[in-house]
Specification:
Elements: E1 13-20, E2 25-32, E3 35-38, H1 47-51, H2 56-62, E4 66-70, H3 71-76, E5 86-87, E6 95-100, H4 104-116, H5 120-134, H6 146-157, H7 163-169, E7 174-179, E8 190-193, E9 200-201, E10 204-210, E11 216-224, E12 226-227, H8 228-233, H9 238-242, E13 248-256, H10 263-267, E14 270-276, E15 282-288, H11 296-303, E16 314-317, E17 342-347, E18 351-359, H12 370-379
Parallel strand pairs: 6-16, 8-18
Antiparallel strand pairs: 1-2, 1-5, 1-13, 2-3, 3-4, 6-7, 9-12, 10-11, 10-16, 11-13, 14-15, 14-17, 17-18
Length: 383
């Protein structure tokens, strides 16, 4: 039986989107005492519009709304069924950006991927050698610091310097485009793997919502689905490794910052990951934001500013500590997804984001873009 719990905090101010059969398009919603309310209005027909307000949480808390049904009922509706109200990704017009290599452990795994050229069989031997040289020397390092520069010199001398270590401890963060506007999927949707990949994994992350002025207004969970073999072959294949049909999941809802939850809570957040396969395999993972090597505010500042504007705001994946090395089938080859895996990402206050793994070619095609949204909102008299 489908698990419809997403464990949202009662005191939180949550913002999301659902598909509305009546409107034949998306509606902006919030959660009040376990009931989903439609708060779509001419003043704020999109999530983007609310995130651009001076106090998004205050607006959502007091916005007029129409009850759509119990949270559990809407979560149990089949995703993609246009005749049923069901959850969508919480964001709409915002750009979807992501930061990579922001944690020491995942940084080392990226070096291993590069050295192994996407071959999981070679990764185990390289992992042992890199571990001998690097050890725990990167765990408490401040990216871009004088100490980081000394570590860089030592790694170059060992022949182990990498482009991944450059963005991990150098002055400049890795920031890339994860998904196209309106292409991300929400809770209980299928997430997609490119069919050419045979070594891949989920990446449990916290994702910030940022306004066009650079204000951080809230946070949610995200799965930055990653193709380790493709990215490992060449960093120039990052787009193919990261941006595919249904390869970006967000949700379950965006928690807006207020007195009950703030950026400081994000900095202390603990994320748990569970992957459950149809073969009975279970993978447990954990990511602690306390171990991030770049502060979230720094990552936002490197993404938006005088050097780069986002008129509709953006959402930003902060990276993950999690890098799976647990063997699934063949000793020494580590973890990779199988079709039908259930991925659950949880964090206190942000709920649980649950998705099922498919091939991107088998997931529902992305067919509702910006032009469709604008026409739908105009038809409804909202713009």
């Amino acid at each position: 039986m489908k698990n419809t719990s997403i464990e949202l905090a009662r005191e939180g101010v949550y913002l999301g989107r659902v598909w509305s059969p009546k409107a034949e398009g998306p509606s902006v919603v919030t959660l009040r005492d376990g009931v989903v309310f439609d708060i779509t209005a001419t003043k704020a027909p999109t999530v983007r519009d609310i995130c651009e307000m001076p106090d998004p949480a205050a607006y959502v808390r007091h916005a007029d709304g129409t009850a759509l049904g119990a949270l559990s009922d809407i979560l149990s509706a089949p995703v993609g069924d246009a005749t049923k109200v069901h959850f969508l990704s919480p964001v709409d017009l915002q750009a979807v950006k992501a930061c990579g290599v922001t944690f020491a452990s995942s940084m080392v795994e990226r070096v291993i991927e590069e050295r192994a050229a996407g071959d999981p069989k070679a990764a185990e031997q390289i992992r042992a050698r890199v571990g001998e040289v690097i050890g725990d020397s990167l765990r408490n390092i401040e990216a871009g610091s004088e100490q980081a520069a000394k570590v860089k010199e030592a790694l170059i001398a060992e022949g182990l310097w990498s482009q991944y270590l450059e963005v991990g401890i150098g002055p400049d963060a890795e920031v890339f485009s994860k998904a196209q506007v309106l292409s991300s999927v929400g809770p209980h949707a299928d997430v997609g793997l490119h069919p050419s990949s045979s070594w891949n994994n989920p990446e449990p992350e916290i994702v910030l919502a940022v306004s066009a002025k650079g204000a951080i207004v809230g946070a949610m969970l995200g799965n930055d689905v990653n193709l380790r073999d493709i990215e490992g072959r060449s960093a120039l294949l990052l787009s193919k490794a990261k941006d595919n049909n249904a390869s970006c999941a967000l949700g379950p809802m965006l928690r807006l910052f207020d007195d009950s939850y703030s950026l400081d809570d994000v900095r202390k957040a603990e994320l748990d990951l569970t992957v459950t396969g149809t073969d009975g395999f279970v993978l447990k993972g954990h990511s602690s934001m306390a171990q991030i090597s770049r502060d979230p505010e720094d990552l936002v500042a490197q993404t938006i500013g005088r050097h780069h504007q986002y008129p509709d705001g953006l959402v930003l994946f902060l990276g993950t500590l999690f890098a799976p090395t647990q063997d699934r089938d063949v000793p020494g080859e580590g973890f990779t997804h199988k079709i039908g895996d259930i991925v659950e990402i949880s964090a206190a206050g942000l709920g649980t984001l649950r998705n099922t793994v498919r091939l991107s070619t088998d997931c529902a095609p992305w067919s509702f873009g910006t032009s469709h949204l604008m026409r739908n909102l105009a038809k409804r008299g909202l713009i």
